[in-house]
Design brief:
One of its GO terms (molecular function) is cytokine activity. It is found in: Secreted. One of its GO terms (biological process) is immune response. This is Interferon gamma. Helix content is about 70%, strand content about 0%. It has about 190 residues and is mainly α. Helix 5 (about 65-90) packs parallel to helix 7, helix 5 (about 65-90) crosses helix 9 (about 170-180) and helix 6 (about 110-135) packs parallel to helix 9 (about 170-180). The protein is globular. The protein starts with a helix and ends with a helix.
Length: about 190
Amino acid sequence: MSSSCSLVCLLVSLGLVLVFGACVPENLAQTHESITDVLKLKEPEVGKRPLFGSVIKSINTSCQRKEQVQLMNRTLDIYAHIFSSILQHNQHQTHDNNGSPALLEHLSENSRSQVQMDLMKLQQKMENLKRRLNRLHHQQPNYEDVLSQLNKIKVDDALDQRKALAEFNEVYQAACVITSHHCGSSH
């Protein structure tokens, strides 16, 4: 089953690249790859039931729907909270609000420092993208079901954090498609 999950994840990733083109900068992909093994983002439990699958599916390549911008904006908000939670937990406590160990707790000091720097780079890229996205749209959400699912994501939960980090490139890619020149000007 884990090989089929991996195959599905690979096919989805390849499909996004083929459909959307290469929007994720190489250095961002390398930064993400550097934390993938350390944080065990390829484990089957992380690949099951993606957190943002419904958001990515809702993004069509024509970029004509304003709801897509709203969904991506909310998705990036959740990432901002996840990044903050991971980085704050590492500095202030070793367990999250649910009593689970903090995500970076098991890492050596050197690995933890490198992962923190990589997470800060990912966070900065995401924040820059979110600023561009915010300029595109400011209406009330129409995708209530998907927004409801996004609101149920537990940003302090280590498994949800790992799932979100595993899906980062796909979410970044989808947001990039929305903010690209042909998408931003169609609104």
